[in-house]
Amino acid sequence: MEAEAAVDYLVDERSKAQFDIDAMKIIWAGGKHEFEVSDRMARLVASDPVFRKDNRAILDRKELFKNTLRKAAHAWKRIIELRLSEQEASKLRFFVDEPAYTDLHWGMFIPVIKGQGTEEQRKKWLPMAYRMQIIGCYAQTELGHGSNVQGLETTATFDPELDEFVIHSPTLTSSKWWPGGLGRASTHAVVFARLITDGKDHGINGFIVQLRSLDDHLPLPGIIIGDIGMKFGNGAYNTMDNGFLRFDHVRIPRDQMLMRVKQVTREGKVVQSDVPWQLLYGTMVYVRQTIVADASCALSRAVCIATRYSAVRRQFGSQNGHETQVIDYRTQQSRLFPLLASAYAFRFVGEWLKWLYMDVTQRLQARDFSTLPEAHACTAGLKSLTTSVTADAIEECRKLCGGHGYLCSSGLPELFAVYVPACTYEGDNIVLLLQVARFLMKTVSQLGSGERPVGTTTYLLRLEHLLQCPCDVQGAEDWLKPDVVVQLFEARSARMTVACAKSLSKFSKPEDGFMDLSADLVSVATAHCQLIVVSKFVEKLQQDIPGEGVKQQLEALCSIYALSLLKKHLGDFLSTSCITSKQASLANDVLRSLYSQVRPNAIALVDAFNYTDHFLGSVLGRYDGNVYPKLYEEALKDPLNESVVPDGYHEYLQPVLKQRLRTARL
Ligand SMILES: CCCCCCCC/C=C\CCCCCCCCCCCC(=O)SCCNC(=O)CCNC(=O)[C@H](O)C(C)(C)COP(=O)(O)OP(=O)(O)OC[C@H]1O[C@@H](n2cnc3c(N)ncnc32)[C@H](O)[C@@H]1OP(=O)(O)O
Ligand SMILES: Cc1cc2nc3c(=O)[nH]c(=O)nc-3n(C[C@H](O)[C@H](O)[C@H](O)COP(=O)(O)OP(=O)(O)OC[C@H]3O[C@@H](n4cnc5c(N)ncnc54)[C@H](O)[C@@H]3O)c2cc1C
Asked: Burial level of 548, CB count in 10 A (0-12/13-18/19+)?
């Protein structure tokens, strides 16, 4: 094949941008320093051949896993050699872009000891974990119990004679099943088990358990351990060793029970400390918050691929002597631009959620537990909303890329396969939305009792007004007013919440009501979470936004985010009489004009994510838009193309062909 000169097929597109892209890059990264770190780490990874990832789809499981071990070890070596800060190291791991045991070690094992250990326990275990002298995972889920944490069966029975706990798996269903890093890599785990003392069950708690020898990595006596097998997709999440684990009366010293929430004394007495018991779930709150930030990364990545390819791809029609760029089709815009807007929306709500998490953590340290329920509801609800939207959006981006989107070299199949479990792990999305609904029902039921709603539920203080207020849209331009839009989303959420609360009150047992109305409760929770995302986007725009044209672009995206949600959930808005059908039709007109406004800026808006071609891992999303020759190049790398005549021809193809010849002669 002829070598083509390097041409940037997207130069024209970039020249149309009406805003300062460098300023937008800084907004996206969350600050100048954050941008600088992220940019440096992305380039470092992209330029290192050990971090190549274009062969993942064709490696078998063992090679794939070994390769991941190699990359993780190399990443660690670079972190030490370059004396990277925690922020730099975590960015480096992010750009390596390969699920690995290190995610669970840094993302859950260390946080659970930090959050649920006593000071003494932190001093003992954290230095070893920080130096990676031990590798840990988070072993909560069991074969028979995932969502229902209180239903876990593994037992930790105190033996006062030896001052030890006996960890045991009493049934098949009590086997730990799923923990990442457990299958092959981890030496230790924080295991969640039922605390039993003196024959009494005190509920679940975390215990630090050594699983494998630090000398030869063999499982310790009483530990039965392995990998749970291949998961969805080639490559994808199969770089991770999700594992199973059974205990046969494994003994650990008493001081390996994480004792911040509950303590067991030398005599076997259980003492409950004054922190809320829900802190046992605190690591999940922390990880849910990071998953929201991660959703904007996965979504922006898919949108970047689909947007660049949509500008390169041409079908039908006539545009300056060529066929039409598919990005100019209104249908393509109406599918793509709301996803672009969602990527920015999730970025900003993720930033806010990080702040909320830090705030609740500081309050907890000062023994102020008042905002914990809200932090739980926000992290659970936003984790659910952003991961569900992102998973669907990646698949939509694949379709937006037509047939080529289905090729592994588009990067989209693997991104989808890696991403979809986010809808399940760290809490099934429906189960989490039901937690939000429970919080909203409780908030509404307490309104009369003087309990003031806090933070994201403060709007419920204006319940009377929100239940009746008409929507202030008279002309199309009113849809661009942020206060009009926010009030509309508040009214929809308030009205749906109250309607559900009324229906619930008709049940004599609230649990029966929750069962019967659970589908409606999920819709209520979704409406509330969408309100949070819309209002955090609007709040972001009230801050100082430097850079020519940057604020205008973000305002357009904010309106697209809100109005496309309105269009998608029109039934909610009409059935609660929040808007009239005339107003809905005006919103649709505004959306079309917003798409026209975004169109010339679309490529620059995805360039602002500052992704390297290495990170994107997509021929269709290449920065230079040079798609077709590179698609050929990738195709030729496939092992099937290594020989002209395929392996198996002589055994299986030739006989068939010959047989057909004979039949034809007959
Ligand atoms: C080299 C390679 C480098 C690669 C680098 C990659 C870098 C990537 C960068 C970023 C990536 C980020 C992504 C991270 C990746 C993560 C990988 C995957 C990890 C997955 C791990 C897991 O899945 S761990 C297991 C998770 N399990 C769950 O989530 C279980 C869900 N279930 C529950 O949480 C609970 O059972 C329940 C909440 C659903 C119910 O609990 P329970 O029965 O006890 O409660 P009630 O409903 O009765 O509630 C009682 C009461 O408590 C309140 N409450 C409940 N939960 C909480 C909480 N968490 N905090 C505070 N309060 C809580 C509840 O509201 C009730 O309150 P009331 O006032 O009584 O109403
Ligand atoms: C890739 C991956 C990595 C993981 N990593 C870890 C890890 O490191 N450590 C760990 O401990 N665990 C891990 N998990 C386990 C994960 O946390 C659980 O799978 C998750 O919490 C969901 O629980 P489940 O599998 O029991 O689902 P189930 O609860 O069995 O869900 C099945 C269906 O039932 C529905 N459902 C359940 N309860 C209700 C209800 N009350 N009301 C209405 N519908 C309901 C759900 O919506 C779902 O549709 C991982 C899972 C995956 C997929």
From this structure: exposed
The rounded distance, in Å, linking the Cα atoms of 348 and 178 is 31
Q: Based on the domain organization, do 482 and 424 belong to the same domain?
A: yes
**Does residue 463 form part of some domain?**
yes
Question: What is the C-alpha to C-alpha distance for residues 305 and 627, in angstroms, rounded to an integer?
Answer: 11
Where residue 5 falls among pLDDT bands split at 50, 70, 90? low
435 CA distance to ligand 1 middle (Å): 10
Spatial contact of 244 and 174, defined as CB atoms under 8 Å apart: no
- Smallest Cα–Cα separation from 530: which of 495, 499, 492? 492
Ligand nearest to the CA of 142: 2
Q: Could you tell me which residue, 665 or 161, shows the higher pLDDT?
A: 161
- Terminal Cα-to-Cα distance of the chain (whole angstroms): 43
* 376-396 pLDDT, tens digit each: 999 999 999 999 999 999 999
ipTM of the modeled complex = 0.96
For the four alpha carbons of 429, 433, 438 and 439, in that order, the dihedral sign comes to: positive
The CA distance from 379 to 387, in Å, is 12
Q: Total structural domains in the chain?
A: 2
Alpha carbon distance 265, 257 (integer Å): 11
Task: Check whether residue 260 and residue 234 sit in a common domain.
Answer: yes
The CATH number that applies at residue 602 is 1.20.140.10
Three-state secondary structure string covering 644-663: CCCCCHHHHHHHHHHHHHHH
Residue showing tokens 């954290």: 126
In angstroms, what is the span from residue 429 Cα to ligand 2's centroid?
A: 9
Distance 528 CA to ligand 1 centre (A): 19
If residue 110 lies in a helix (H) or strand (E), which one and from where to where? helix 110-116
- Compute the mean pLDDT over every residue in the chain, rounded to the nearest whole number: 96
Catalytic site includes residue 426: yes
State the closest ligand 2 atom to the C-alpha of 237, by its place in the atom list counted from 1.
Answer: 1
Q: Residue 289: pLDDT band by 50, 70, 90 thresholds? A: very high
Residue numbers of the domain that contains 141: 110-273
CA-to-CA separations, 213 to 186, 239, 298, in angstroms, rounded: 10, 23, 37
* Residues 424, 420: Cα–Cα separation, whole Å: 8
Helix 61-81 to helix 86-96 angle (10° resolution) is 150
Catalytic: which of 426, 511, 539, 634? 426
Residue 8's pLDDT band, with cuts at 50, 70 and 90, is: confident
CB 515 within 8 A of CB 427: no
Instruction: Tell whether 660 is covered by a domain.
Output: no
Prediction pTM value: 0.96
The DSSP secondary structure of 440-463, one letter per residue, reads HHHHHHTGGGTPPP-GGGGGGGGH
> What b/e readout covers 79-110, taking b as 16+ CB neighbours within 10 angstroms?
beeeebeeebbbbbbbbbbbbbbbbbbbbbbb
CATH number of the domain enclosing 195: 2.40.110.10
Residue 221: inside a domain? yes
